[in-house]
Design a protein that fits this description.
This protein is of the alpha+beta class. The chain contains 26 helices and 34 strands. The structure holds beta-alanine and zinc ion.
Length: 876
């Protein structure tokens, strides 16, 4: 594939007025007839032909205004259909027939088969695998869809919009017709046909319209869709309350499928979901699964306005819908659950997934300017950093200011395909603030580093804060401009109370937000009566790295007194990190690992503090991960030393806090029946972290095995199994528990994914042999993306010592897997390959092995564009 540039954007020469599709479904020979009505755009070149996109298509028929077109007027290849000599301004109709093979479609893009049903995935460029079409997001039209299929095998015939009607259609067949009145781009098209069970409900919108809600799942799994339905209704109500957004069709449908490349897809009125984000019950789903279902349901639903009603002009604008919609789903969860705990979880995720992307060879701006394969830009940067940028706009403008800008955005751009500039302009117009410098967040890749230092002048009663910002070079961007960084900031006195300065010089400081705009900046806070302890970047107001040398005593002070609980967690993490970094260095040199006492005492005090919510305490106890430590170390990393150092620290905390952990383990038991609500989940989370530490203190599998045997829900069961497998892999207890788990859940693929995930994460050099053996297990299915992600994905992304074993076998194994997967499903292969993004920060021997494995991939014949793009950028 060639490189696509944002600068080359221009509108199409032809306007699409209407789309009328007829599908005659057949597993291997589906006939698609597309009737497309176009007219030439006023002002466009009157000699221009129309060029439609295709991908692996064969043209089986072409009519122009209902008459067969002379072959001299068109040219068809698998990738395009070009038609010449078209009317100057009058509308004309092309009727295009293609024959496609859903059964052979292993890429899971376009129309394919999964679990005996027909289903589609069109974002970003899958529609062109169905028919020739102007397959780009700025071509919007109303769609009519007629589906004809065998009636017995496919009682359900679904597409976007409202149901028009259906009837018998010859012997053994029937048809259904759907009309979507809202003009939409092709990437939002969906079709599902087959035989599925359904859960049904209704929602009455704010203007009093009744909407039918249906969630389709495999027969027999209906009870496991109840939580998803509940989450959907809460999402619909929340979008009305918080953003004034009402649903706009008579029916909203979700279909759960088992073979799916993404998490889910927001097709208009007919979402298609990876079944792991629908199906849940206490026996089979963890609290994390419930939380993920709630998030993904909300996310896809919220796309109805941010993505569907207002869509992207081109794929460079992907963050316009994704960053904004992630922000919206994060806000939903914050309102439904605990705001600080949600913020902690999101920042952890951002730092462990997006920061390495932003600091490595795959770094790119939130709004990129070039791409070779758009599938590779569904990244943590576009999604999660995109959300952070939206959140900063909300921080800059305040809750009401942000709401005004969003209202204008919905008002001004409804029905359009727009750009990031259009979005930002709405906030400039409503607030009067110039967001030019702020917009660099969309255009400059890399995580800014802010260095801070403070000094207190008791005589003057003033506190001086010096700030400096630097954004590292990233691929294609060697020098960076200073950004507009909103830093939520507060000063705390010795008694723990907040100090409100009488005035501030040198920086805008309003509503506790300090605006850092210069490369260097000095802010002076006046009227500060005693030495303050400063809290910077509270709530993680900006996605930056902060270097601020605070003493353990000051951090402990913040951990106790900050009113922002995210900042308390940050202070605890800042106390932990130097210990973990030093432990990794000491372990590497064979020195004893010793923890600094203030850290251990503060952490245990937080764990025992009953004024703090249990979910917060569990987050505090979950130390930075091995990959977090590797990122902070920066380079020349030895995964074994990082692992050993971290384990030693855990042991010291466990020994020091044994009584506290035993007390928590006893006290946090939930009583009565299982409830997936956030409060009960918090109790389970804290109890399970206590169990983790107790197992470190006791150094035997006994307690975890007892917990495994006693568990009455999947959260406790899988946590106990993880402790057994990761800490005591060779024990009899672990062998027994793994076998019991497999036998109990052998017929539930989503639960067996947990069994694969837990085992793929077992640290140490033997992990690879275990993963190889598991791939031969009859419960493993190579063609299913969830299975592949659970086993190979977990091994590569989340097992630094196993994947990064010193002889390089882990990297070579991955290379082989990538090539094998690429032949079938390039999107999945490319995604799993991004696990190599931090290879340059390994110590030299491992880095050499990693490079060789990447070169092996690069040299393979017939690489997909997806994998070629990732491997070449990773090696550059
Ligand atoms: N649009 C792809 C799936 C999602 O982000 O919702
Ligand atoms: Zn999305």
């Amino acid at each position: 594939g060639q490189v696509i540039h944002l600068a080359d954007y221009r509108p199409t020469d032809f306007v699409l007025e209407r789309v009328d599709l007829t599908f005659e479904l057949d597993p291997t020979e589906t006939k698609v007839e597309a009737r497309l009505i176009f007219h030439r755009r006023p002002g466009a070149d009157i000699t221009a032909p129309i060029v439609l996109d295709g991908d692996e298509l064969t043209l089986a028929g072409l009519l122009f205004d209902q008459v067969e077109l002379d072959p001299s007027r068109y040219e068809a290849t698998p990738e395009s259909l070009t038609v010449r000599d078209l009317p100057e301004s009058a509308p004309f109709e092309l009727t295009i027939t293609t024959i496609i093979n859903p059964e052979a479609n292993t890429q899971l893009m376009g129309l394919y088969r999964t679990g005996g049903i027909y289903c589609t995935q069109c974002e970003a460029e899958g529609f062109r695998r169905i028919t020739y079409f102007p397959d780009r997001p700025d071509v919007l039209a109303p769609f009519t869809v007629n589906i004809i299929a065998d009636k017995e095998a496919n009682p359900l015939l679904l597409s976007n919009g409202n149901f028009l009607g259906g009837a018998g259609y010859g012997p053994g067949k029937h048809f259904a017709a759907w009309f979507d009145p809202h003009p939409k781009p092709s990437y939002l098209f969906a079709l599902v046909a087959g035989d599925l069970g359904v859960v049904e409900d209704t929602f009455t919108t704010m203007s009093g319209r009744d909407v039918v809600l249906k969630i389709y799942v495999e027969h027999g799994k209906e009870p496991r869709a109840a939580y998803a339905m509940d989450a959907l209704k809460r999402s619909m109500a929340w979008d009305e309350e918080r953003f004034g957004r009402e649903y706009d069709l008579d029916i909203f449908m979700i279909v759960a499928v088992s073979d799916f490349n993404m998490g889910a897809m927001e097709n208009k009125g007919l979402n298609v979901f990876n079944d792991r984000y629908i199906l849940a019950d206490p026996e089979t789903a963890t609290d994390a699964d419930y939380a993920n279902i709630e998030t993904v349901i909300a996310h896809e639903y919220f796309h109805n306005w941010t993505g569907n009603r207002i869509t992207c002009r081109d794929w460079f604008q992907l963050c316009l819908k994704e960053g904004l919609t992630v922000f919206r789903d994060q806000e939903f969860t914050s309102d439904q659950r605990s705001r600080p705990v949600k913020r902690i979880a999101d920042v952890r995720h951002l730092k462990s997934e997006q920061f390495p992307e932003d600091g490595g060879p795959l770094a790119h701006p939130v709004r990129p300017t070039t791409y070779r394969e758009i599938n590779n830009f569904y990244t943590r940067t576009v999604y999660e950093k995109g959300s952070e940028v939206t959140r900063m706009i909300a921080t800059l403008l305040g809750r009401d200011g942000f709401k005004k800008g969003m209202d204008l955005y919905f008002d001004r751009h409804d029905g359009q395909a727009v750009t990031i500039e259009d979005f930002v302009k709405c906030f400039e117009d409503t607030s009067g603030r110039d967001l030019t410098q702020f917009s660099l967040w969309y255009h400059q890749a890399g995580t800014p580093l802010v260095t801070a230092s403070g000094s207190y002048d008791p005589a003057a009663g003033s506190f001086t804060l010096s700030l400096e910002q630097m954004t590292p070079a990233t691929p294609g961007q060697s020098s960076k401009e200073p950004m507009h960084i909103p830093l939520s900031l507060a000063l705390f006195g010795e008694n723990g109370g907040k100090i409100a300065p009488s005035s501030v010089d040198g920086a805008e400081y309003a509503g506790e937000v300090l605006h850092l705009t210069g490369r260097t900046q000095t802010a002076v806070f006046h009227g500060v009566g005693s030495r303050p302890v400063v809290s910077i970047n509270r709530s993680f107001s900006a996605p930056i790295n902060l270097h601020f040398d605070q003493s353990p005593a000051d951090l402990a002070h913040l951990a106790r007194h900050e009113t922002d609980h995210f900042a308390r967690w940050q202070a605890l993490t800042d106390l932990a990190l130097p210990n973990l970094l030093k432990a990794a260095r000491d372990a590497r040199e064979g020195k004893p690992v010793v923890c600094e006492p203030t850290f251990v005492e503060t952490l245990i005090a937080a764990a025992a503090d009953e004024s703090l919510e249990p979910a917060f305490r569990a987050q505090a106890l979950a130390l930075p991960s091995e990959s977090d430590i590797a990122r902070e170390l920066g380079g020349n990393n030895d995964p074994d030393a990082i692992h050993a150092g971290r384990q030693a620290i855990l042991k010291q905390i466990a020994d020091a806090g044994k009584d506290v952990f035993a007390g928590l383990y006893a006290a946090m038991a939930t009583s009565g029946g299982f409830s997936p609500d956030a409060k009960s989940a918090g109790l389970r989370a804290l109890r399970n972290s206590a169990l983790t530490y107790l197992s470190h203190a006791e150094q035997t599998p006994a307690r975890a095995k007892a917990a495994f045997d006693a568990a009455d829900n999947m959260t406790d069961l899988s946590h106990a199994l993880t402790i057994l497998a990761h800490r005591f892999p060779d024990s009899a207890e672990t062998g027994e528990a793994l076998a019991a788990f497999r036998d109990r859940f052998a017929d539930n693929a989503l639960v067996i994914d947990k069994w694969f995930t837990i085992q793929a994460g077992i640290p140490g050099a033997t992990a690879l042999d275990r993963v190889r053996r598991l791939m031969e297990n009859p419960l493993f299915k190579r063609t299913n993306p969830n299975r592949m992600r659970a086993l190979v994905g977990t091994f590569a992304f989340a097992n630094p010592t196993g994947f990064g074993r010193a002889d390089g076998e882990g990297y070579r194994f991955l290379a082989g897997q990538i090539l094998e997967i690429d032949g079938r499903n390039p999107q999945l292969a490319a995604r799993i390959l991004t696990s190599m993004r931090s290879w340059r920060s390994l110590e030299p021997t491992r880095a050499d092995h990693a490079r060789s494995a990447l070169i092996e991939i690069e040299r393979a014949p017939d690489l997909s564009t997806d994998v070629r793009d990732i491997v070449e950028r990773t090696l550059k």
